[in-house]
Amino acid sequence: MALVHSHVDQLPAHGVAAGPIPDPATMPPLPTVIGRGLRNRCPVCGEGHVFDGYLTVVPACDHCGAPLSLARADDAPPWLTILIVGHLVVPLLYIVDQAYSPSLLVMSAIFLPLTTVLALALLRPVKGAMVGLMLKLGMLKSESDG
């Protein structure tokens, strides 16, 4: 994985050509870029959107031109989402089981949909936060890295 610290030419995204890769030192603080990513906002400017659809990262911010698609989060967001959902659902499952001793069918009817909904609800914000983190840390792939 090659880290990129220079200008990368990309196709225009939503009518805006990708600008130079932001210098991590001049970007907002880490909590700000992660928070913007959580809210589906460009980690650099806070104005443009990170996603085009549910999980597809836009090639570049339509406001500032930051090359967001070079921050390829890959497997980190699903892993972190599973970790978070597991830490929420498993203790709750244990508490309900110990307090009420419901049947396996009732437990399945409650916790399978709950787990699915939580995972789907958290995946997009977690991926946005990961894009922000990767931009801040300068962990970007070049187009030739595939």
Secondary structure blueprint with pairings:
Layout: H1 30-38, H2 76-100, H3 104-137
Helix pairs in contact: 1-3, 2-3
Task: Describe the structure concisely for a colleague.
With 146 residues, the chain is mainly alpha-helical.
Question: What report would you give on this structure?
Answer:
With 146 residues, the chain is an all-alpha fold. It has one domain. It contains three helices and no strands. The chain has helices spanning 30-38, 76-100, 104-137. It is elongated and about 60 Å long. The termini are close together.
Low-confidence stretches: 1-14
Fraction of residues in β-strands: under 5%
Helix content: 40-55%
Main sheet: strands, sense, barrel:
none
Shape verdict:
elongated
Radius of gyration: 19 Å
Task: Give the overall average pLDDT.
Answer: 88
What's the number of structural domains?
1
Give me the number of helical elements.
Answer: 3
DSSP strand count: 0
**Class from secondary-structure proportions:** mainly alpha
Termini distance? 10 Å
**Oligomerization status of the protein chains:** single chain
SSE order in H/E notation? HHH
